[in-house]
Amino acid sequence: VFSKDGTAVRRIGSKGNGNGQFDRPWGLLLVGDRLYVSDDNLHHVQYFSATTGQYIGQFGSAGIGNGQFSNPCGMSTDGKGNILVADYNNNRVQIFKEDGTFVQVIQCDGKATDVAVDNEGKIHVTIQSQHHVQVFSSDGKTHLDTYNNPAGNFNTPNGIAIDDEGYIFISCNNGYLHVLSPDRKEVKLISGLSNLWGVALDKDGYIYVAEYGNNRIMKY
């Protein structure tokens, strides 16, 4: 946990497979006072007090059934009490209640790395293996659209975030950060980075990108 200026404040958890421990923590999601963390190697999601870091609970296990994961990655919330988890190797997104109760599956056409919900409630999923984003209806039952960046350089998308105005921010493993307008046109392309994964926005309009290849967070 860092302050706004990047000063390290504290840390949550330790290495291991017990409650409150991590093997390979991947996705982060803040919902109210809860911090949800997906673990790519332990195939579950744990949640903590966002203010104290205290372990509260977890859901999921390794497998292909409802409520099970195979390398869970990015997460999002729809603002209606549901949590969406990109279930990477099961080629899907799963939806849960905030207490971990399974709701439904959204089947994708490839390896799902991250998920974001836009201001209309539509669900956008980055599909790493297909180099595009799939869009589903707010109830997750209808595939509406598929897109990438028509300007190119859209290889292995790993992270996605959408602001309140509908602008889309997508990080790609080939070192590009794409900014698309609500109608999917390129607004900005940031290049020269290394192995990008998660991307997040704050309320002040700053963009944060996990640059895996250089062991750092980039802020724009």
UniProtKB/TrEMBL annotation:
NHL repeats sit at: 56-99, 193-220
Keywords attached to this Swiss-Prot or TrEMBL record, sorted alphabetically, are: Repeat
* Molecular-function annotations in GO: zinc ion binding
What superkingdom heads the lineage? Eukaryota
Protein name as it appears in the record: SMP-30/Gluconolactonase/LRE-like region domain-containing protein
Origin organism of this chain? Amphimedon queenslandica
